[in-house]
Amino acid sequence: MSQDQTTQVKPSQFALAWELFRWTPVAIAVGLMAGAASALLLWSLNVATAIREAHRWMIWLLAPVGLCVGLLYKHFGKDVEAGNNLIIDEVHDPKRTIKLRMTPFILIGTFLTHLFGGSAGREGTAIQTGASLADQLARPLGLNAAGRRVLLMAGISAGFASVFGTPLAGAIFGLEVLAVGAVSYDAIAPCFLAAFVGDLTTHHLLQLVHMGHTIYKVDEVPALAASNLLMAMAAGAVFGLMAMFFARTTHAISAFAKKHITRPELRPFLGGAIVSCAVFALGTTRYIGLGVPVIQESFLHQVHPWDFMAKSLFTSLTLGTGFKGGEVTPLFYIGATLGNALSHVLPLPVSLLAGMGFVAVFAGAANTPIASALMAVELFGADAGAFAAIACVGAYLFSGRAGIYHAQRAGVGKQLPEALAAKAEE
Amino acid sequence: MSQDQTTQVKPSQFALAWELFRWTPVAIAVGLMAGAASALLLWSLNVATAIREAHRWMIWLLAPVGLCVGLLYKHFGKDVEAGNNLIIDEVHDPKRTIKLRMTPFILIGTFLTHLFGGSAGREGTAIQTGASLADQLARPLGLNAAGRRVLLMAGISAGFASVFGTPLAGAIFGLEVLAVGAVSYDAIAPCFLAAFVGDLTTHHLLQLVHMGHTIYKVDEVPALAASNLLMAMAAGAVFGLMAMFFARTTHAISAFAKKHITRPELRPFLGGAIVSCAVFALGTTRYIGLGVPVIQESFLHQVHPWDFMAKSLFTSLTLGTGFKGGEVTPLFYIGATLGNALSHVLPLPVSLLAGMGFVAVFAGAANTPIASALMAVELFGADAGAFAAIACVGAYLFSGRAGIYHAQRAGVGKQLPEALAAKAEE
C-alpha cells in the first residue's frame, strides 16, 4: 500500500469491484461486532447510572474499585492498557494483533467507572471494542499489515458511529483521527460501510431494550449574517482553548501521578478517593458519570456558568489517574455548558451555543474538525450545523498540538501561513 | 509552509490569534469578491437562458459564436485559457499571479455558451472568478507563495460555495479538490470564512433581483436498512462509472480536436455546429444550457431513461471543443437523471435516487467525496444525505484516476488494500 504502488497500479474497475465485493462482508462483520458491543456498552452504562443514582453511597467505593481496576490491568491487561493510543499506533505501524482481551477489559472497566461515580465517557470504549473485535478477523482472513490497518480503521469508524448514532461522523472520524491536519481516503469504503452497519446494529439492538440515542435539539438558529460568522469563529477559539485546557490538565495529572505514585493500582485509588470526597463535599452528582441530563439541560436554559470547569476537572481527575472510559461525552458536556455560559456574553441563542460547544470542544480535543462538523449536521440539522462547523474549525485551530490522543501523527499540523507576518517584518 | 517548518514551529495561541485576526479581513474580501462575481454569473445565466428559450433560432449561431470565443482566447487569453487546471497548478506550485483578465473572459465566455445553446455549467466559472479575483490581493498585501496558495484555495472555496449556495461543501471542496484521496487542513480557516462570506454575499445580491438558488427536494427517504446500504453502494458504483465515462469522453473529444484541427478557434466552431444541428434534429432544448428544469423534473417523476446519456454527450461536445463554462451542473443533471433511470431497477424512491446521483456523479468526476456528501446534507438534509454519502464514496472509488480536473495531484490514489487478494493468491 505504498505511494509507489499507487502510481504504478492502475486499478481496472473490474478488479476494484471484485475487491469491494470481497471487502463488503468483512466491513459488515466489523460493523455488526462493533455495533453489538456499543449496544451492550450503552445498555450497561444505562444500568450503571440508574443503580448509582439510586444508591449514591456507592460513590464512596470509587477508590477501592479504582484499586481493583488498577490491579486487573496491572496483572492481566498490561498489553491492552494503552487503549486508543495503542490502536492508533497499530494503524500507523501494524505489528501484532490487538488482544481480544481488550474488549471485556474496557467494557468492564468503563462499567465500573460509571457504576461507582467516576466522570468519563464512552467513545474510547466503543473505539477499543470496535477495533479490537475487528482485529480478530485479521488472522482467520489471512490479512497482511495493510489489511489489518483497514480493519482497525473500520473498527474505529464503526465503534464511534454506533455509540453516538452518527454514521457519517463516525465514518470520517476513523479516517481523520489518525493524523492532525490530514485525511487520506484509502480505507474510505470499508470505513463507511462498517460505520453504517454498526449504527444500524446498535439502533436495532437498543430498540429491543426500549432504549435509543439521546436527542439534542437546537431550537433556534438565526440567519447566518457576517457578524454571526465572526462570533461563531470567536466562540470556536474559546472552545479550542477549553479543549487544550482539558487535554493538558488530564496529561498533567497523569504525568504527576506516574511520577509520584510508583504502584499503578494506587493512582486510581487516590483519584477515586478525591472524586468521592468532591462529590459529597459539593453534594451533587452533577459532575460525574456521562452527564447526559446536564447536557440536555444546557440546550434548554442557562445552567451554572461554572459547570464546564467542574466537569473538566472531575473528568481529568478520573481519567488522568487511570480509570477506564472515554473522553468524548464529557467533552460534549464541557462544550455544551461552556457554550451555554457564553450566552451571557454572545447574542446567540442558548441552544445554538450549546450545540456549537458540544461538537467544537470535541473537534479541538480530538483534532477532527470535519467529523465534528458532520456530527453537528447529523444531530442538529444543516442550519445549526453551519454555525457549529465554523466553531469546529476555530476550535481545531486553537486547541494546540496535543489533543487527547497523543498517538496522533503530525500531518500538516495547524497554523496559518505566515505570509502576512512575513510582510510586516520586511 | 513546508512540513519541516510545521514540526519546528510550535505556534503559541496568541500568535495564532493574531494571524487569524490578520487573515480574517482577507478571507472576507475574497468571499465578497467571489460572491459578487457568482451573483453576476447566476443573474447573467438566468438572462441568457431566458433570451435563448424565447429566441431558439439563436442556437443556429452557436458555431460562429464559438469561433469568436476561440479567437478571443487565442489572441488575448492564452495565459488564462487553462482555467481550473491553471488554478490547481498554481496552488500546488505558485509561480505568478493569475491575470485579472481571467474573470471577464470566463464570465463572458460562459454567458455566450449559454446564450447560444451550448451545454455547460457554472462552477468552473465561479472557481475561476473566485480564484483570479482573490489572487489580485497577493501583490497589494505583499504575500509570498504560501500566502498566495491560501488565497487561491479560499477563492476556490468561495466561488464554489456561492454559486451553489452550499457553504460547507464549498469550504471542503477548496481543500479536497487539489489531490485525489487526500485533504490537508492548513488553509481550513480562510477557506471556511471565505466560503460562508461568499455564500452570504451571493444570497443577498440575488435577493435584490428577486432570484435565489434552486431548491431540490428529496421527498421520501426510507429507513436505512442493510439492503438499502448495499443498494446505495452499488448505485454509487454506477454513478462512478458514469463520471468516468463523462470525463473520458470529454478528454477524448478534446484530444481528437486538438490533433486534427490545428487552428484552435475552429474547434468550438465545429463543436457548436454539431450541437446546433443536434438540437434542431432532436427538436428539443432539453440537453443544452444548465438544464435546471430537467434536474427539477427528475426529482418529481420518472424522466426519459436516456436523458443522462444525451446530456453527457452534449456537454462533452460543448466543453471538449473549447466552449467556456463549468462541468458540475451538467454532472448534477447527468447524475439526477441517471439516478432517476435507476429507479426502474432499484426499489428506492425516485427523488432519493435523483438526489444521490446529483451529488455522486459529481463526487466521482471531481474526486471530492466529502465535499459532495456535505453538499447532499446541505441540500437534501441528513437522512437523504446518508444515502447520498454512501453513493459518493462508491462513485469516488469507481470513477478511475482521471477526473475532470487533470491538474489534480495523486494523493494516496484510490484502491482498496490488496490484502485480501494477496491471500487468495497464496
UniProtKB/TrEMBL annotation, chains A, B:
The cellular location(s) given in this protein's UniProt record come to: Membrane
Source domain of life: Bacteria
Report the SUPFAM superfamilies cross-referenced here.
Answer: Clc chloride channel (SSF81340)
Supply the alphabetized keyword list: Membrane, Transmembrane, Transmembrane helix
Q: Record's CDD domains? A: ClC_sycA_like (cd03682)
**InterPro entries per record:** Cl-channel_core (IPR014743), ClC (IPR001807), ClC-type_chloride_channel (IPR050368)
Q: Does the keyword Lipid metabolism apply?
A: no
Provide the topology term for how it sits in the membrane. Answer: Multi-pass membrane protein
Q: Which residues cross the membrane?
A: 20-45, 57-76, 150-175, 226-247, 268-288, 308-333, 345-367, 379-399
Report what the protein is called. Answer: Voltage-gated chloride channel family protein
> What species does this protein belong to?
Granulicella cerasi
